Amino acid sequence: MSSFRFVIPLLLLAVPAALPAQSFYFVSKQQQFLQTSATGAVADPLGAFKFQAKAATSVTLTLPGGGTFPSVFDNKNSDYALRQFFATKAALDAAFPNGTYRMTGASIPAISLNLAADNYPVVTPQVTSVTNGTWNSGGVLVVNPAQPTTLNFSTFSGYATSGVAGLINFYLTSMSGDNVTLETEVFSQAIFGAPATPTPLTSYSIPAGRLTSGRLYRAWLVFDTVSTMDTTSIPGSAVGSLFSKEVSFYLAAQAPGTSTPPPVIVTPPTSVSAVLGGSATFTITVTVGGSTQVGNIPFIWSVNGQEIQNLSSSGVKYSSTGSTLTINNLTAADAGDYTVTVVTGGGVVTSSPATLSFAGPIPPVITTQPRGATVNAGSTLALTATATGTPTPAFQWRKDGQAIIGATSDTLVLANVTAATAGNYTVFVSNSVGSVTSNPAAIVVTSGQPSRLPNLSVRANLGASQTLIVGFATIGAKTMLVRGIGPTLAAFGLSGVLPDPVIELFNSASVKIDENNDWSASLASAFADVGAFALTSGSPDAALLRSVSGPHTAQIKSVGSGVVLVEVYDSGGTGKLVNVSARNAVGTGDNILIAGFVVDGTAAKTLLIRGVGAKLVEFGVGGVLADAKLEIYNAAGAKIAENDNWNALLQPVARSVGAFDLTLGSRDAALLITLAPGTYTAQISGIGGTTGEAIVEVYEVP
User: Fold this and answer.
1) For 501-519, b where at least 16 C-beta lie within 10 A, e where not — what string?
2) What distance in Å separates the CA atoms of residue 111 and residue 233, rounded to the nearest whole number?
3) Mean pLDDT per 10-residue segment, the chain (702 residues)
4) Cross-strand pairs, 693
5) Shared domain check, 168 and 71
6) Phi, psi (5° rounding) for residue 541?
């Protein structure tokens, strides 16, 4: 297999030789594109978004939500790095939220790196036109190496004004072993000793004779916004944060009248089950022009969207003959989806993913830690943790180091807590091949502190014939504010919004008791009272304010289709809001079912949260989500709890709050969890990318 350098285009500073070498410590978020035609770039199918942290020395990265990741030494680049790839921006932001990141290590002072808010370049980098070059039907840019070639780029519109500096980098390297490397980069501001270039890079010319006929090349064009930067925290080093957009493409040098057939995958790699400590091999069969003698064409292997050439490795972790990839010294971290991209001058093709899994025993790993809280005396406390391992791990909860008799589930439930409940709680997780103890969760018991569930919001993409149903229930009379927002969302940069939402409000007997088409300006003060954002004056958004008691549902419809945000607020009254729910179609990517809710006050609140799909069949609902997964994220975007298949031990709790029973053994999801005051989201998705109708429910547990 031909090897080639994968560009890490962030801060590849072309500083003058007289300047001292720089070391870099940074975090970045990047949107990645692939260009295969003259009509523009598309989201990179192997990983449209990337998070990256890099350091010159060994460090631990702490996320805004409190999670930590160790850096791993990267032999290829001789630094320490963390890189993860995601299919959607929502998945990236959930795993690595915006906020302040920290790096700590033995050889550096603790440093803060700020990704405060999205600052991606506005324009997507791409080749807009080519002099002496054409894109073939296989997705490769073909040029005549005997003539000069000029690549013209889109213009980085925020280059000189956004953040500390704009950075543009173009990099081209050989995939065929002729050691050609072409690179240029410019900065809008003078940093690190590099001069400022006020005019952004808009083209690059490849001289005649610089490329070799019959050879393949790969290029990257990157637009970086350097959001924050300092050169004083660590002497001789730069510390900063970046938001980036990158496009890559393939280039073939071919003399006029010559061509190469595109590659054809005859046999894709197949999934492999292996054992820890052993090895696994993937194999692909490819033909070019009908021949399996493919010669020295590149085979680019990737795992979970990251190219193998960029993964940290030592010794002979990875070995390849091109059409085969072997992973040695297997660990649990090697599990995932493997693909291979094959390139010729005639085209580019990527295999379907093949999964590496493990059949043998795997020690337990705690994937979500229990979280501490301050709770009122007399309330219910629920601590939860999740863990993976083979065989399935067992749980044993402990208080102040002492085992709690009978506390052997993934959720610890303590009813009617008292001052004696306070302490540090951990869970010991074990199976036949290992054990691990969770971080401690500190529980403080107070009394009389306010704590309530004041609202729910759901954003959905509705088709013209779809209805979004939001339910809520009160004990006693409450004034509820319900809003269906479409047109005003355009003010927040959203496109394709629902043009004219309509709200219909029904009581428990399914009788319509109120409705609204276009909201009344008289409700503006009610919006402000509950902290809701203002609606655009005269917009056809919908809102109604009404006193209710007991269970009700709000149905949101529209003549057209598009994105809608539905909000339900507790706007006052002597009663109590005890549950909220929403039903809609669950899709994939950004179209999963996401509900936001708030725990208000100064004490934590215990909630039963459910994602129900399979059970809905019994209520006459068709096309249900057969296997729901529930994930809870905090305001920083950190995942704090998750559940795939619900635990039957929660059935009595569900009955106590008036929730319908789930069918034993169903693939619905449920969590009982105590949450500190704050903003949260409950996300419902389908296992294996499945789709269908589902309900997300949030119940207050006394």
Assistant:
1) bbbbbbeeeeeeebebeeb
2) 7
3) 30 32 82 93 88 90 79 74 85 85 89 90 95 94 96 92 88 85 90 82 95 94 91 84 96 91 93 89 92 81 79 64 89 86 92 88 87 93 91 95 94 95 95 91 93 86 85 91 93 85 94 95 93 92 94 90 90 86 84 88 93 93 93 83 90 91 92 92 91 92 90
4) 585, 624
5) yes
6) -70, 165
Please tell me whether residue 525 adopts helix, strand or coil conformation. helix
Q: Which structure tokens are listed for 83?
A: 């890189």
Q: Nearest to residue 130, comparing CAs of 114, 146, 121, 142?
A: 142
Distance (Å, rounded) from C-alpha 583 to C-alpha 694? 6
Task: Quickly count: other Cβ atoms within 10 Å of residue 252's Cβ.
Answer: 28
- Quote the tokens at residue 300: 């680019």
Task: Examine the domain organization and report whether 433 and 335 are in the same domain.
Answer: no
Pairwise CA distance, residues 544 & 563, whole Å: 20
Residues 233 and 297 in one domain: no
> Three-class SS of residue 618?
helix
Buried b (16+ CB within 10 A) or exposed e, 455-475: bbbbbbbbeeeeebbbbbbbe
Residue 324, domain CATH? 2.60.40.10
Output the six-digit token pair for 249: 């493409």
Of 405, 420, 446, the one marking the end of a domain is 446
The whole-number pLDDT of residue 460 equals 83
pLDDT at 413: 94
Burial of 267 (0-12, 13-18, 19+ CB in 10 A): exposed
DSSP class of residue 534 equals: P
Going by C-alpha positions, the residue among 409, 411, 415, 410 that lies closest to residue 381 is 415
Extract the runs of DSSP E, i.e. beta strands, from 453-540: 455-462, 468-485, 502-506, 512-516
Widest pairwise Cα distance in the chain: 85
Q: Which structural domain range is residue 373 located in?
A: 362-446
Task: Identify whether residues 107 and 198 lie together within a single domain.
Answer: yes
**Are 41 and 108 within one domain?**
yes
Tokens linked to 299: 């085979």
In a domain, 242, yes or no: yes
pLDDT value of position 192: 65
Tell me whether the omega of the peptide bond preceding residue 391 falls within 30 degrees of 0, making it cis.
yes
Which helix H or strand E contains 91, and what residues bound it?
A: helix 89-95
| Residue 65 CB neighbours (<10 A) | 17
| C-alpha 307, offset from chain centre | 19
pLDDT at res. 588: 82
What is the C-alpha to C-alpha distance for residues 499 and 518, in angstroms, rounded to an integer?
11
Domain boundary among 320, 343, 358: 358
All residues at 6 or more sequence positions from 226 whose CB lies less than 8 Å from its CB, including other chains: 163, 164, 165, 166, 167, 191, 240, 241, 242
> What's the total number of domains in the chain?
5
Contacts of 619 (CB under 8 A, 6+ apart): none
pLDDT at 96: 86
